[in-house]
Structure formats: C-alpha cells, structure tokens
C-alpha cells in the first residue's frame, strides 16, 4: 500500500525540496529571544557569548564552532562537555544542517544521537514557526525501537534544548498514558521522541498530528525490523508529509536487504554515510571467553565482581528466569545490584537505570531487549553469563564498555551447551577471541 502511495506522487528529477539557507549567527547572548525562561536565566546570571567557549583548532578534528550553529545550541554543547565532533557528527552535520536526507550506518556509542538532534534543533531555531500553532502538531519526530533508547534520546534532547523554548515530549509504552496525553493537550510540542506502538495509538486517536512534521528520524532501524515494528512504522510514515516535503534521517547499525529497501523508499536523494570501525568490536575492549561447566559460573562471576572492586558491571543472560536467579544470588552475596528485564515495570526500569548511572547501583543483570537501551559511560565490565543466541547481540552487549576512549573488559562464559556459538561470534566480529579453560575450583 505504501509503495503505491509513494509511487503515485511524481518524484522531482532535480534537487530535493528547496533548501533554506543556513543563517549566519551573530555571536551574542544565548539568552536572547527564544531562550527558556526563567530556568535558563537561573542557570547563569551573565550573558553567554562564543568567547566563553574557546576550543583550539586541531588538524583532523571538526569543532562545533565550525558548523555555524545557533549560540543557544553551542552553549548547551559546551555545558555537556563537548568540544569536537565525533566521526559520525563530522560526517553528517554539514549535510543535515542544509536539510539533506541521510542514511547513516553507525553503531551505538558513536555520537549519532547528538548528530541528528543538533541538526533538527538548529533548524527549528533558525526557522521558528510564525503565528500560533496548535499544541499537538510537532515539528520533529524521532522513532526508536525500545523505551529505554527513546528515553535516552529524550534526555539528550532536553540537554540540547535547555537554552531554547523548544519542548520535548516522550511517548513510550509502559509509562503513564494519561500524563503523556495531558502533555499533548496542554503543551506546545516541538519534538516528539516515541516508540512505534504508543505513537501510533496517539496518532490514530488524533491526540498527536503528524501531517506538519518537518523532520523524521528513524533510529536503530535494524532493531525495529527484528522486533517486528516495521508495519507500525510504515503506518506512521504514511501520516507524515511526503518525503519531498520533510527531512528524513535513518540510522542503522546493519543494513539487511529489507532495511535497504525501506531506506530508499522513505528518503529523497539522501546523503549516505557509513561510520563503521574496521573491527566490528571496539579495540579498547579486552575480550576473553572462559570455557566452564554450569556449576562453575556463579563462583567465577562472584570472584570477577570482587576482583573488579565492585565497579560498574553489566551481566547479560538470555532468559528472564536466569536474570531473576542471578539477581537473587547477587543480593544474597551483599552485592549492590538490580535487574532489567521485560518483566520489570517501565517506571522501575527507568529508576533503576538512573541509579546505575549515578552509581547508586553497581551491578545490573539484563536481558538483550532491556539492555539495548543502556547508554551509560564508564562501564568497567560486561559479563555474558550465557552466550547470546544471535552473534550480533554479542557486539551490542560488549559495546556497553570501552566507550569514549576508555578501556573496558568483557568476559563470556561458554559451556558445552553453547560453545558451538564461538566460531559464529568470531566470524561476526572478524577476529578471534582469547579462550581460557577454567579448571575446577578447589
């Protein structure tokens, strides 16, 4: 159905929709008209200028200064502690700031979230909507496959819009429906970050209208495909303006044929960027596989956590009952831990993740779906208590450590029941993993 609808509209053979010229920003106060008040003013009594954000030029690096961003965005970037663009940001922002569509291949932890948020927010600031606008007509839409990822994106969007009047609303399942509906009814909504199911519910009930959306971002498209969300996403896309009249950015860690087809269908003359490390896994991660028996796993795990001085650790298991059992054992061993799995309520998962971030919780036990939304810096150790059934999940699991240039460590347990997965995992990451045989403990 969607292909027919897209085909029915003739595509221009020339350039994409007429581009709005980037405005040259005068280097003045970040608290100029449009900044949030009074919260932003309380943050700093003095007017901010670009002179407060000095970043030296470094060969081979792109400064955020060099991109002609609005001062209010630059101030937020400075407050977040960033100075130079990551590789994906440097590769995509010059095009997306000009309004080009984008197909980007990038994994978690590369800075892609800030890449698409900075482009979207800058455009909204450069070209504010004139006149009054109904509450429930957002300008920007970001769709993510999991609640945790959507909330992480919304959190980063809040930080980047801190000195603006732009309002971010998250619409995710498993959280207070009435509260989200009330936001749509009572607040001017500029940017919606959503999971497909909850967004479709609101859209079908006319609580949020998508026909005036200026920019659509689809994040982790491959995960949306594997989780069965593509039919919902197709329905959502049909509610937005035609691809010639919106900007579309699609990001995916991998590009199976189905995602390639959707990317071509949903974007208009896109720029294509791939930022993929030569090795699928981060070279800053020390990887080891312990070949063990089932009854060796728990004592070795406990010893690992103790030897790691109870530093921030994530333990992955394949099943909910496994995470439940491990969580109980860890608590009985007086280890400060919590569990993230599908059986934990969303509110509790959000609180747990927040406590893990601030160090109140030291060890998380998670399943793959719950763990996909964990974007926390300074994770020292990742343990695969059971090897994942999908080799791609191995990459995502251990990618939680060794981020931001820091060294990390991953330890995987392999028993006679799942050791057959090792060659497949090594083929996926394009490297061999050190294996150590663990003798029986006396």
Structure commentary:
With 442 residues, the protein is of the alpha/beta class. It folds into 2 domains: 2-275, P-loop containing nucleotide triphosphate hydrolases (Rossmann fold, 3-Layer(aba) Sandwich); 285-437, Rossmann fold, CATH 3.40.50. The protein has 17 helices and 14 strands. A 7-stranded parallel sheet has the order 3-4-2-5-6-1-7, with helices on both faces. It is globular, with a radius of gyration of 23 Å. It starts with a helix and ends in a 5-residue tail after the last strand.
Which characteristics define this entry?
Rossmann fold, 15% strand, 442 residues, alpha/beta, seven-stranded parallel sheet, 37% helix
SSE layout and pairings?
Layout: H1 2-8, H2 39-43, H3 71-79, H4 87-96, E1 102-106, H5 112-126, E2 140-143, H6 147-160, E3 168-171, H7 177-186, E4 191-194, H8 196-204, E5 215-218, H9 221-226, H10 230-239, E6 247-252, H11 257-266, E7 271-275, E8 285-291, H12 297-307, E9 313-316, H13 320-332, E10 337-340, H14 346-358, E11 363-366, H15 368-371, E12 381-384, H16 391-398, E13 408-414, H17 422-429, E14 434-437
Parallel strand pairs: 1-6, 1-7, 2-4, 2-5, 3-4, 5-6, 8-13, 8-14, 9-11, 9-12, 10-11, 12-13
Helix pairs in contact: 4-5, 5-6, 8-10, 16-17
Radius of gyration: 23 Å
Broad shape: globular
Strand order of the largest sheet: 3-4-2-5-6-1-7
Distance N terminus to C terminus?
A: 65 Å
Briefly, what CATH class of the largest domain? Alpha Beta
CATH topology of the largest domain: Rossmann fold
Number of helices: 17
Q: Which architecture of the largest domain does the CATH hierarchy give at level 2?
A: 3-Layer(aba) Sandwich
Number of strand elements: 14
Q: How many structural units, i.e. domains?
A: 2
Regions with little confidence, pLDDT below 50 for 5+ residues: 1-16, 27-35, 37-45
Tell me the β content. Answer: 5-15%
Give helix % range: 25-40%
Helices and strands: which structural class? alpha/beta
Mean pLDDT: 84
CATH superfamily of the largest domain: P-loop containing nucleotide triphosphate hydrolases
Largest sheet: 7 strands, parallel
């Amino acid at each position: 159905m969607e292909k027919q609808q897209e085909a029915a509209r003739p595509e221009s053979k020339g350039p994409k929709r007429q581009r709005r010229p980037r405005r040259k920003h005068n280097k003045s106060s970040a608290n100029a008209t449009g900044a949030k008040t009074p919260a932003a003013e309380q943050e700093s009594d003095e007017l901010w200028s670009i002179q407060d954000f000095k970043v030296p030029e470094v060969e081979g690096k792109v400064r955020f200064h060099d991109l002609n961003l609005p001062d209010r965005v630059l101030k937020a970037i400075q407050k977040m502690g960033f100075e130079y663009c990551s590789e994906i940001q440097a590769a995509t922002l010059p095009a997306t700031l000009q309004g080009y569509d984008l197909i980007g291949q990038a994994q978690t932890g590369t800075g892609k979230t800030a890449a698409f948020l900075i482009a979207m927010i800058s455009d909204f600031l450069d070209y504010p909507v004139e006149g009054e606008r109904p509450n429930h007509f957002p300008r920007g839409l970001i769709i993510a496959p999991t609640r945790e990822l959507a909330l992480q994106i919304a959190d980063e969007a809040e930080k980047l819009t801190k000195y603006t009047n732009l309002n971010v609303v998250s619409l995710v399942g498993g959280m207070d429906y009435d509260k989200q509906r009330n936001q749509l009814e009572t607040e001017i909504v500029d940017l919606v970050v959503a999971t497909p199911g909850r967004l479709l519910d609101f859209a079908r009930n006319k609580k949020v209208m998508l026909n005036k959306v200026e920019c659509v971002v689809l994040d982790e498209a491959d995960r949306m495909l594997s989780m069965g969300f593509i039919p919902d996403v197709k329905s959502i896309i049909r509610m937005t303006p035609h691809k010639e009249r919106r900007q579309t950015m699609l990001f995916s860690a991998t590009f199976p044929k189905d995602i390639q087809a959707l990317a071509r269908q949903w974007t208009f003359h896109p720029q294509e960027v791939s930022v993929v490390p030569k090795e699928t896994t981060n070279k800053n991660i020390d990887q080891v596989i312990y070949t063990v028996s089932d009854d060796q796993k728990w004592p070795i795990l406990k010893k690992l956590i103790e030897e790691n001085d109870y530093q921030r650790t994530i333990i992955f298991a394949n099943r909910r009952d496994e995470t439940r059992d491990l969580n109980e054992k860890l608590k009985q061993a007086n280890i400060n831990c919590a569990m993230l799995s599908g059986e934990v309520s969303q509110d509790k998962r959000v609180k747990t993740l927040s406590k893990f971030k601030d160090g109140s919780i030291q060890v998380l036990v998670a399943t793959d779906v719950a763990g996909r939304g964990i974007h926390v810096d300074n994770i020292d150790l990742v343990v695969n208590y059971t090897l994942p059934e999908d080799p791609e999940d191995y990459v995502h699991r251990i990618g939680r450590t060794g981020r931001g240039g820091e060294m990390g460590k991953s330890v995987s347990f392999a028993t006679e029941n799942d050791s057959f997965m090792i060659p497949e995992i090594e083929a996926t990451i394009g490297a061999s993993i050190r294996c150590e045989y663990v003798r029986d403990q006396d």
